[in-house]
Task: structure prediction
Amino acid sequence: MCGIVGYIGTEDAKEILLRGLEKLEYRGYDSAGIAVVNDQGVHVFKEKGRIAELRKVVDIEVEGTVGIGHTRWATHGAPSRINAHPHQSESARFTLVHNGVIENYEQLKREYLSQVDLVSDTDTEVVVQLMQRFVDDGKRVEEAFRYTLSLLKGSYAIALVDKEDVDTIYVGKNKSPLLIGVKDGVNVVASDAMAMLQITNQFLEIMDEEIVIVTRDSVTIKTLDGTIVTRNPYTAELDASDIEKGTYPHFMLKEIDEQPFVIRNIIQKYQNEDGTVRLDDNIRQAMKESDRIYVIAAGTSYHAGLVGKQLIEKLAQKPVEVHIASEFLYNMPLLSENPLFIFISQSGETADLRGVLVEVKKLGYRALTITNVPGSTLSREADFTLHTYAGPEIAVASTKAYTAQMAVFTLLAVDTAKARGIELDFDPIQELGIVAAAMETLCDQKDALEKIAREYLAVTRNCFFIGRAVDYYVVLEGALKLKEISYIQAEGFAGGELKHGTIALIEEGTPVIALATQEHVNLSIRGNVKEVAARGAYPCIISMEGHHGEDDTFVIPAVHEHLTPLVAVIPMQLIAYYAALHRGCDVDKPRNLAKSVTVE
Ligand code: F6R
Result:
């Protein structure tokens, strides 16, 4: 949440910062700002709303070859111009942008800043005012920066500029992502490499509780006690076209369409020459040795975890529990003797998961992260990583990362089954190939799905999704997709559960989307459809070839029964997309949300 950029080089920084922020807008988009530094001082421009709004207030006459920028997802203080970053110290000597949450900011304010009039409601402003206070007290700037950061509790990625030294950017990090991009005579700062790919693909990682002093020609990493750290840059393997919409109107639509390719890519990355699954031996061993798997995730990734549980229990015959990350720490179940934890996260940065991972490591348990971002915090801090190879997912609503997570779970389940000597009548490589082809067929049926969205969802206030067995997990995801981008109140239910209360909400014309891909519950889910139809609901049945009915609204091509979620979700994603479009919503950037949830 929140995105940071910084530039120090030879070109005018404004456009580079603004373009970088546009690439980071997925991390938060309620306000934004930049500070451009030149010999006349530090010029701050900020505005409520999107980067497009910020562009309107930036003075094109102001030029400078150094600058920092920020796009915000509000935590402390409402989204407003005043609360937007950059924030400045009282004398305007220091200017700072911050991503994260300073948990002890009230205490720091009381202890050190009782004489200072803070202008914003943010936790961030405290940091920049502390800098001023310690420099006024006689500390050198770098020393004051390290000292300030050592007082902070919580998470931060910070970039700071000093009006009296216009050739340096001070950077610090703890628990929030931040990278330094390096090039001859130019260095950049970014929350995500994709923001600065137009400048460089060489990036340096910063570890927690390190600071970096960035000038045009040098990057000096130090620990908070001042010890110099040496580290080599890595090459960011990102293709600039991966982060462009191309001819698509929205990233979400592009990412839905990319799913067949993603599945084929995963097959290729995890396949041996003889067509068997290739996974790290250490992961296989850890899966084999554990007596119970605990899957920890949030949101869409949690829904993928529910499907993952089915796959591992059915194929590898190993018990799995799936937990919502934000609940796990506060309501930990009785753990088995030899657990293995699997963290599923598209971004690899979700704070709720990180809290659990830190605790799990303290307890001495092993952890595997399944993520789309291998260098991410959750990936670095776990013992093992499985990469989902979905490519950058920019739309806030997750689509291709979800199907990629389930595909990787399939391979993990099959590999574990093999390691346990379980004979399977299931070739994952072949079956995933069939899934990719079915996905293609579905992506070609956009007109039919757009029509369903228009017919069922153009004016409704709410919508229910029902499914049984693994279809229940898919309808949870279908409902989440619809509500987050169209703002229609949508809920997913186990088909049999609706009549235990929620059926009271069914009125004349209430849309109920029923998913029926599973033979063994086909009759019972259709019975549930009849129950709601009898009470006036307007049912939409999405079924699978082979056990579909004549009057079903939409029929999905058949795939192996273990893998139906990977295809069944596609009509749900597209229905949500078109419903949001018809209702005039901002599909890629729904209100109140951000892509990477780095606060608890
Ligand atoms: C919904 C969505 C979120 C994320 C959740 C976890 O479309 O994207 O529910 O799935 O915030 O994020 P990651 O997977 O990055 O940990």
